[in-house]
Amino acid sequence: MHRVELNIPSQPIFERVVRASAAEVGAAFGFSDERVEDLKLAISEAVNNAIDHGNRGEISKLVAVVFEIDGDKLEIRISDQGQGLEQFNPTRHVVDEQNLEQGQLRGFGMYLISELVDDYEVTSSQKGTVLTLRLYRRETQP
Amino acid sequence: MSDIIRREEFGEVVILHITTTSVDAVSAAAISTEYTAMRPITVLDFREVSFINSAGISALLKFVVSARKSGYKLFAMHVSPHHQKIFKMVEMSRFMPTIDERDLAEYR
Asked: Which of A55, A75, A108, B104 could, after both became Cys, cross-link A61 (CB 3.0–4.6 A)?
């Protein structure tokens, strides 16, 4: 098993550091360029959620990201130091006329994650939230 | 006009060339304010863009909202296959279809 761990302050600029690391880990795992892009986007969404909704932008609180390669499985755990979240909404969320009229221009993150990874799970408590993403190596990759 | 967008205008057309590689939470605020530069035909050029996330999509939706209010046409140009997939996933492409650079020639 190979393991890479990062801890970043809750500032959006450091999400780029995680994203760059995700690109390298994805390439090392043997992902195609397209799946590396999927991985980068899913992790970007997860880290931004941890910064905004978990740690509520408190810079002193860290977001921990652990990449683990285990055979044909790549698992990424994104943890915040917030007080837990009541709910996640991974249901399909797209741009439509009603959202535009109402100025609801956000909220695509969890839906994108659910579409881009093979599976994921969320655990949340008063000590923080952990989002675990899993992607598997396939014989034929898009 | 910020240095994150370079503007090219001819007739009723404006091409807003996005000059940052990441349309994300860091650049979103600067990009979203640029909707005031729109013209009856507005084209967002993604040639330099290698990454877009949902924070970036939210910023781009400011252009969609403004175009709908003004009756302007909004297009995207030089969108990578990956970003076309993401735009289709969230149905952004319904409100900001892609346009080919050669199709703009008739307006020049």
From this structure: A55
Edge-to-edge strand ranges of the sheet holding A73-79: A2-9, A62-70, A73-79, A128-136, A119-125
Which of chain B's residues have a Cβ under 8 Å away from the Cβ of A106?
54-55, 58
Domain range enclosing A89: 2-136
pTM of the model: 0.93
The CATH number assigned to the domain holding A69 equals: 3.30.565.10
Residue A141 lies in a domain: no
pLDDT of the residue at A86:
72
The ipTM of this complex is: 0.92
A37 vs B82: CB contact, 8 Å cut-off?
A: yes
> Can you give the CATH number for the domain in which B78 is found?
3.30.750.24
- To the nearest whole Å, the CA of A113 is away from the closest chain B CA by 10
Length of chain A: 142
**The total number of structural domains that make up chain B:** 1
H or E stretch covering B15: strand B13-18
